Amino acid sequence: MRSYIGTDRDMVASDSTYDRVLRLIPAGGIRKAMRKIYQHLQLQNLDQIKLESGKKFRIAGVDASGFGKHLVSVISMFGKVRIPLDVETYSRKGKELPSSYSLIKRTTRLLGKGWCDVLIGDGLYKAAKFFRLCKEGGFDGLIKTKEVRLEVIKDASGLYKAKDDASVEKVSGFDINRLCDYTIEAVADIQVLGLKHKLKIAHVKEYYPKPNRSDTEEFFVITTKQDLTAHEARELAHRRWGIENNVFRQLNQLITSKRVHTHSQKVLTCLLYTSDAADEEDSVDLGGRRII
């Protein structure tokens, strides 16, 4: 909060004052402010990232985390400026998916169809409903998973072995950033039960020479975006960690959420909303005014 309002004072207000005041702030007003920030980011093309292939995408991530005593689903944008767009609290473990589905619907309703190009989730979002909500919202879904027992993974694995080289995209290379060799096998036009949209599935194997970690990392990328290359699918899957490494850690640090004592979900939600622009590295120029 000191960073947010620009003061070096040791204490701006007590915890009890935060708790009392934030209960009075309407979440709708904060969401409206977030929409305006997002619109300005779009105008400055700060909502896009450029992949190694040269293509530009507007990507976002959905995930959940614990903040103090509260469980929260978060949607974040992974552009040149990383910023949480909306949050949804839920009552107990096991309720992340319904919370995230509600969050996806509301974000699409508030920001409009096609507000991003690809929404990325982890293996929990492997359900057909996730991909269906994404397509209904005008964007594609993408997940990264290690679950080899999924029927769609079994189907793709059979195609990797049965189809000729012209039908399966096979690439390999060396990742200079992660210092690993990798191989990718990707196949498109996979049909699954309960989803009218076909999937593209990439099988990624990474080989790390470092002695302090596992020799091989293996995972699958599942997406409705058929025109992604194997390289692009792997790169986007790795971007999923941005929501944990950048967004969640930043929020935890800014609001010291591991020591938050509030019992009010509304207070926690307001803290998350109002702290997302508090990093000076992610300052944004909004028509002559600078939001830090």
Describe this structure in words.
With 292 residues, the chain is an alpha+beta fold. Helices cover 35% and strands 30% of the residues. The chain has 9 helices and 13 strands. The protein has helices at 2-5, 15-22, 27-43, 96-111, 128-136, 151-162, 230-239, 242-255, 265-275, and strands at 49-50, 56-57, 59-67, 70-78, 82-90, 118-121, 140-145, 169-175, 180-192, 195-207, 216-223, 284-286, 289-291. Strands 5-4-3-6-7-11-10-9-8 form a 9-stranded mixed sheet, sandwiched between helices. A two-stranded antiparallel sheet has the order 1-2. Helix 2 (15-22) packs across helix 9 (265-275) and helix 3 packs parallel to helix 9 (265-275). The protein is globular, with a radius of gyration of 20 Å. The chain starts with a helix and ends with a strand. Mean pLDDT is 78; it is low at 276-292.
In total, the number of strands is 13
Give the radius of gyration. 20 Å
What is the CA-CA span between the terminal residues? Answer: 11 Å
Mean pLDDT: 78
**What is the general shape?**
globular
Class by alpha and beta content? alpha+beta
**Order of strands, widest sheet:** 5-4-3-6-7-11-10-9-8
Largest sheet: 9 strands, mixed
Helix content: 25-40%
Query: What ranges have pLDDT less than 50 throughout 5 or more consecutive residues?
Result: 276-292
